[in-house]
Amino acid sequence: MKLTTLMLFLAFMQVSAGTLAQKVTLSERNASLTTIFEQIRNQTGYDFAYTTSTIKAAKPVTIDVKNEDLKEVLDKIFVGQPLSYTIQNKSVVVSIKEASLFGQLSAMVKGALNIPTEIDGTVTDTLGHPLVGASVSIKGKNLITQTDSKGNFSFPNMPQGNYTLVVSYIGYEKLEVDITNTGKYEHLAFVLRLATSQLDQVRVIAYGTDSRRFSVGSVSTVTATDIEKQPVSNPLLALQGQAPGLNVTATSGIPGSQVLVQVRGQNSLYLHQDNQYSNPTKPLDQPLFIVDGVPFAAQNINVNQFASLVTAQSNSGGINPTSAGISPFGNIDPADIESISILKDADATSIYGTQGSNGVILITTKKGKPGATTFDLNVNTGFNSVGRPVQLLNTQQYLQLRKDAYAADGATPTNDPNNYLGYAPDLTIFDQNKYTDWQKVIYGQNTTNTDVHGSLSGGNAANTFLISTGYNRSTYNYPGDFADQRYTLHSNMHHSSQDYRLSADLTTDFGYDQNNSAGYGGAQDVVLAPNLPDLFGPSGNLLWNYKGVDLTSYNFYSSLKQPTDLENYNFNTAFHISYKLFDGLSIGATLGYNRNATDEHSIDPGVAQNPAYLNRQANFSANTFQTINIEPQINYDKNIGKGIFSALIGSTYKKNTNNSTYTTGQGYSNDNFLGSINSAPIVSALDGYNIYKYSAGFARLNYIYDSEFIINLTGRRDGSSNFGPGRQFGNFGSVGAGWIFSEQKLFKKSSCILSYGKLSGSYGTSGSDGIKAYQYQALYASFPTYVPNFQGIRPGYPTNLYNPDYSWATKKSLNIALDLGFFNNRLLLNATYYRDQENNQLVNYPLPIQSGFATVLGNLDATVQNQGFEFAINSTNIKSKDFTWKTNFNISFNRNKLIAFPNLVNSSYASVYQIGQPTSIIYGYRYKDVNPQTGLFEFYTKNGAISSNPAYGPAATGGDEVPIGNLEIKYAGGLGNIFTYKQFSLYVFCQFSSRNAPNYLAEVYTGNQLGFAYNQPSAVLNNYWKAPGDIAPLQRLASSYGSVAIGPALRFPQSSGVYGDDTYLRIKTVSLSYQLPDALLKKMRIKGASIFMNGQNLLTFTDYKVGDPETPGAFTSFPIQRIVAFGLNLKF
Amino acid sequence: MTVFLLVAVLFASCKKFIEIPANPPSSITQKQQFADSSTTISAVAGVYTYFSGNGFAYSDAALTYTTGLSADELLYAQSTDFQQFYNYSLTPLNSAVNNLWSYPYQSVYEVNAVLNGVNNNSGLSTGFQKQITGEMEVVRALYYFNMVNLFGGVPLVTSTSYSATDRLPRATTDVIYKQMLADLTDARKKLTAAYPSAGRARPNLYTALALLAKVNLYDGKWQSAYNEADSVIQSGNYTLESNLNNVFLDGSNEAIWQLPANQGYYGVADAQYFVPGYPGANLNFLLTAPLLNAFEAGDERLQNWVGSSVVNGNTLYYPYKYKNVSASTTPTEDQMILRLGELYLIRAEAAAHLNNLAQALADVNVIRARAGLAASTADVASQTAVLAAVMHERQVELFCEWGNRWFDLKRTGTAAAVLGAEKTGYSANAALYPVPQSQILLDNLLTQNPGY
Hints:
The complex is a heterodimer of chains A (1132) and B (452).
Chain A: H1 2-13, E1 23-31, H2 33-44, E2 47-49, E3 61-69, H3 70-78, E4 83-88, E5 91-96, H4 101-113, E6 117-125, E7 135-138, E8 143-146, E9 152-158, E10 161-168, E11 175-181, E12 187-192, E13 203-205, E14 208-210, E15 219-223, H5 224-227, E16 246-250, E17 259-263, E18 288-291, E19 294-295, E20 337-343, H6 346-349, E21 360-365, E22 371-386, H7 395-409, H8 425-428, H9 438-443, E23 447-459, E24 463-475, E25 483-496, E26 502-517, E27 545-546, E28 549-550, H10 556-560, E29 564-582, E30 585-604, E31 616-640, E32 643-668, E33 682-705, E34 709-720, E35 729-739, H11 745-749, E36 754-768, E37 779-782, E38 796-798, E39 809-822, E40 827-839, E41 841-846, E42 855-860, E43 863-879, E44 883-900, E45 921-924, E46 926-930, E47 937-940, E48 946-947, E49 962-966, E50 969-981, E51 984-998, H12 1000-1004, H13 1046-1051, E52 1059-1075, H14 1078-1084, E53 1088-1102, E54 1121-1131
Chain B: H1 2-12, E1 27-29, H2 30-33, H3 37-48, H4 62-70, E2 74-76, H5 83-86, H6 95-118, H7 126-151, H8 162-165, H9 173-190, H10 205-218, H11 222-234, E3 255-260, H12 269-274, E4 285-287, H13 289-294, H14 300-305, E5 306-311, E6 314-319, E7 334-339, H15 340-353, H16 357-370, H17 383-397, H18 404-411, H19 415-422, H20 437-442
Antiparallel strand pairs in B: 2-4, 3-7, 5-6
């Protein structure tokens, strides 16, 4: 907690906000009004609201003032201009002074007679484009209207007097203007500026957009500016630490490797049982991923089918050991992403029903912007190195360890394989002085990333376009030509009809990712004995024998000579069309298609194999995910009373398919044939197929009353093909409400400090059907083709147990949030409490194998609760002409608990979970210490006795294993600071996390036991017991499985002895950039240029000893990389 | 909310939006599988087929090498937890123990599913139903025979409904033996002398009798064992192969039940595990000195069934009954499950217990003669001596086959004396392997064997 306190303190320190300078210094001759406005804005922070047509008639200005008040300066400027101004809320609203002659006349008459008159006007953005559907209301009156398709609004028959008009539009800063209706005609021209405060910026939410101001749901957004500073090739990595409630974990440092994402903790219980002889592993819930409105076909599943260098990096201390693989998101260029929204509570997600129950990640790509055609080019090169290398023993240390091990067992190492306990070629046959630093050989090299991204964009208000293309190449640290390369093409076109009734958007993404890797092996080979003989002959051939000792199992290079090539194609297209039938009602549809296809080819050529035992093999696989998504919608907006009512009614049709094939050829006669299946004498093939159809009807009703009260209702009926007849449909919904209490008069008065305050909450349900199709029938399948026929008969086998009765899992979510804005919203605080409960859990219920199968699919009447707090702070600490400093901070505390599980004690889950404890509970032995006399680890039995060999199994089944902790993340978050000084910009982002996790000893004692013929981290030196009386943290060594030390050694990794604190703070990103000055740019005839240096994973502060705290427990997994990238950005 | 209700009602009728084909392309329903005899036979073939190492009756060699290590047949030359079998330090987490427990139960489910599918199935002829039922009963009996000898009493599963089987306790050894006898007695009635398909891959009447003889022998029912072994030997269908190298070949005249290797590229699993891929390659398993010393001088089995390899000047020996690492090597080898040689030794042992000592020695001598050895010198008047001769012959004839040596040492009560003299660590508790920890976690009615 010390760390947290410090960071909170820092975050609050930075809120010492400077007040805006209101003094102006100007010296201009015959300058245009816009130039003058721009200068004043830079000096004071005041915005100017006007349209180009308004100031068309303005005269040039000559002025010379020094340190004068803004008001006085403005008066001087407006002298003799056909314009007038008012100052409203840090905005200067400019309007035309006089109307037409007729207007003046009629106004005079009306004024004299005090006849009610119309208040009308237009609302545009700063480029003069009309804002359609902006809301305009009159404060204190029951009057609200919306602008039409040309941005016009009107309030007819308004009595004369003073009014306050409030103009707002999502993504733009709200404007409040005092006007006087004198009866004379006045056409008001409001110009809204794009919101710079995070409170009003547009956010992408489910089927639409909103702003933080009026939202009652829990949504976090990460935008392009946060993403582009991070030299990562997977966009998911750019989310790490950026949003409260979101945990992002890299599985390894391998280019292209999987990144795991979780929103607000683990909800489901179902255990993965990959096969009947492995212990079940706990699941990891991941959110729903949607790209431009289209559910990402592959979601966040590994796209590879082959085991390769990538999959070899399993993270045993992590959440899910089956997680390592190639990520489908490696095929999306982070530079093409405009924003990523993370939807967390029922209000935000229940519109996605079934799909969204574990949260939703909405990725929105970049769109064209109106204006002059711009070409933007970004080039950078990164240099990678291992972030936290593990120090291993050298030859002398290693051999000493081995000798100590034999001495401890009273055995003598021999060169005779018949003496299986003493056979030690590393001590008796291999060179005793040879030294190879396998870590350096395997991943010691520095590698490079090259990234190029170019985009062309432009258009006018009605038609915009964007075309961008990118290339990225990241190389592996392994010796050899291994790399991940990505080519992307992204485009967006937008069209609006002249009357702005019709709008159409087409977004298309194409990505091609090529991962050249090698056979299974790699990082885990760093533990090879350091005095292993040469594995290479003089001509580069592999060596298989050294003085009679077979080297086959040691030959690290063999796997490197087995190329494994993966090609992933991602095609995503989203088409959105809408048409406004009449004001307030529009109909539209989103049509989406996503195809993610992977081809893989791996070979095991003769050159990689021991020639005496040759079987040339080649594998070919294809794996295709597809989504078709059709969503017709009706939107309706209407002003009711003082509020705005909006309704969305829609439906979804979705079809997902996944097809895969896997072909293996064996017994080839020549390495050169391995590219084709045709030459394989023995061919076997497999395929896989999954289909999922989903349809739903949904509605969302929203009412914002007087910009103060918000109510939001969503409801839906879902149908899923994953369930058996009669169980396919479910109803879900949510209710959300918010109160912007800062709209109260009380706060208005003291608004110098508190500028915004909102209390909001939501409650709702969602369902989950995350299972495979067809499991409600008992099915028979044919054996795959690699199994020969039995006497000419194709054999069949049953594939699953029969259970037709399972149905939806349901999740109930409660969310309460307090949002505060201070100092005119320069400091925004959010505090959120949430409580999610998932019950009727849909699980692959593990069964004892006597039932024939390891699992059966069914519902479990158990409830998992996640509750927690999230805090976020966004602050603009300093904003002056030359220097700005902004800070973002977030921290979240999730507490996971199994709150109900009827009859848990008698279920298959009895020894996996415990009521009242987190689902990540660990059962094991309570570790005591090393007995100074016997030199063996000692543990407490369940009765408190002490034993080196406690009984296997949990206490409930007679063993000595008891709950010894859990793996919950206690707190996690991020702290970002961005400083800009003139042309310089510096961004420093730190990510932190704290939990209890296994340390490196978990691996030392799980695989190659300490003392066996494998290298070990040098942290074990001087730490193991040698002689009676020694007080040592590690027990005596073992030379073989015959050693008495083996029993305790095997129990140790199941004990509390290998768990410890895993708290770290990582300087995740440091980005320094320099914008070339305008004068230079003009000379170079370019619009913009900057050079930058981006660093990723630069430094880690932690007490975690060996290996990386992000991938705990596995010091031989491929390390997280430190990246330093240099680049150039040009705009033409 | 009315709008919502309207939408909801609209969509309630849209079931066709979520309709998918009745079955996925790669699978059919249970009903379709047992529609007629031609598709039923595919499920039967499934029972006999190996799948991903999850072999029919341990044909992935796991039974051979684990029991070989526990007995005095094999050494494991490399550092993994297989050594736990050798030095009796097994833990309930041992993955090989898990396989020994799990594979049979998955296969028993398949057997039970076939039995369900054929019984009273109007689409199948009575004769076909009888034939398949008999075969499946023999298969099920073989699984339980191995299970009960490895673990003691195990859960008795005869149903495919998981709600009936997921909370079973361990049955007693007696109950398992009763089930085996019931299955084999019924199979004996249902099966005929003719094999139902080519070769001797699927059980016939004599297969049931041979297994029944073995079960009764283990159960100490000497007369039954004698009679049943005698019926098989007297049937005239089987003769000993005079050339030892022909015993394990496809079409061996000695075979009572043998399965095609059926592993794709590879031959019989035993060859894969025991025979080095090339000269000088690391050996997975080594034959022990006590076994090698048990062969008498001139025993042709030592020449033909034991292989050797020289590593770093040291000669290493390995089991070589199966020789083909690759399936394409000719002549083809099959996985032998029951053979006439064993039946002679079953009859011999039963005869010795029945005090028919001359008959016992005669049977032993049949086996010795085939191995090129002179008649046994055991004292025909001494039951102890004759029994010792039988057990010695079993050791050298049946080594590294189906766990015979480990089971023999245990059932004759000689394990402690023999193994205690040869290596350290043996205790009475080691006679039964531990119940896998993962299974106790999943069914806490399962009790652990003592000592684990």
